[in-house]
Amino acid sequence: MIAPNITSPILRDLFHRTAKLRLHFLVLGANIAGLSCAYHLRQAGHEVTIIEPRALALENKPIALCMPPNMTRPLLRCGLGPQLQKYARKCTFMSYASGSSLEVLADMHFPDDLMEDLDADIMIINYNHLMEMLYNLAIDSGVKVEFGKIIMDVDAEGPSVTLFDGSVIHGDVIVGVYGESSLVRPLLEKDLDTEEEEGEENDYFAVVLFSVKTSDIDDDEFRNSLLNDGNPKWHVFTGNQWSINTLPKDDGLEVFVHLFLDEKTFMPRISESTQCPLKDIVLDDIHPNLQKLINHAENVSYKRHVSRPRLADWHDDPGHLVVIGEAAYILNPGSDHAPALAIGDAAVLGTLFSHIHHREQIPRLLAAFQELRQDRCENVGKWELGFIKSSSLPPGPERDARDAELNHAIRATAQGEEQETYLEKEWGEFWRVFQYDPYEAADEWWVEWGVIPDRMDGWNDTIAHLCVEVKDECNLTDSD
């Protein structure tokens, strides 16, 4: 499944068509959202320039990503099967265990026949490898990238951006891709009620990301369970207002860790320092082996939730500005779904703009982009936050009910219940996210709604032309 018929990246004609009107898009950022957006817009036939303040070509993050099928499927469509074959590994297991005892609460298995129905696998990839793949894809397809360019101002009227050196870059549409540091989002927020939040601030979890050398894990049984004999396994350890997720590095030399901390429980004890204060974090009832992971943490980064208003509009009325990814919607810090949602945004935006043939369509296509993506992305964010909360419940009836539900997965499998039936029943929303095809969704919108105004424009032009001919033949004036 991982090696499709396509044997090299698609550098042109991804959509088997190109836009009749060629636009110039300015993408402000070279993260996952920015690179994938730039590539898809370029495939739609547009000129694309990425403006990135960092001087380095690629952002270096020593973390691993778990890619769901709705993320690997677009990457395969872009012809990245060989690269995924080289850098990514199929994940067929997900384990829930108690963070205090390491007792397994449930082992989820994703069998091959189930993944075949989704036309893609759940895969684990190092962040740096994914960024390299997307960067090369964008560059090779003709995207221009300006590194080390500090943006001083974004002019929505231009539309244009002014750089630190005083130079100005003009475009037709400016795309904001970074989250809380977005320069485009504030221009769309200015008329909003700042008290309207996408979620209560203390509903979110801070995240600490770090890696641990497997040689520092002295318990052989625990180390082997994390590595799972070279078959990647996503581990979730449940705790009291905290939870820990682990993924193994491809070479087995490191384990990547997400430590989620309930904001209202832990954050009042922690300073606002940009340095992660792991020494200040005391987790209740944590197993010694998990505590040792924290004690041996390296490459530590730390991110808290930043409260922002919920955007009513992801674009301005003239169609000069649009935001995608975490610039458009708010996800919990360290979200596993953020990359998949960003790539889905890029696929939808590129598909819609592969149909454009006159400028008057820009606002309508941007509105369609938001219509297709906003509810889906926000619902995934809420689902994921609920998952983190469920993994971090304090002792009590809710936790007992959760554990009983997780144990049902083991009993169901032992009794022969179809794994797909169980997953669809218990993870219905999550499973529907897996099945989503952004290209298909955008094309369906175009067929149903996009062509109607254009046909009406054509009819209006035809009627107007006929009226002129009738007036000429009958020698009528406008007053007649």
TrEMBL record:
Pfam family, one: FAD_binding_3
UniProt keyword annotation of Oxidoreductase present: yes
Stretches assigned to the FAD-binding domain: 26-380
Domain of life: Eukaryota
MF terms in GO: FAD binding; monooxygenase activity
InterPro entries: FAD-bd, FAD-dep_Monooxygenase_BioMet, FAD/NAD-bd_sf
Family: Belongs to the paxM FAD-dependent monooxygenase family.
PANTHER family associated with the record: FAD-BINDING DOMAIN-CONTAINING PROTEIN (PTHR13789:SF314), MONOOXYGENASE (PTHR13789)
Protein name per its UniProtKB record: FAD/NAD(P)-binding domain-containing protein
Organism the protein comes from: Schizopora paradoxa
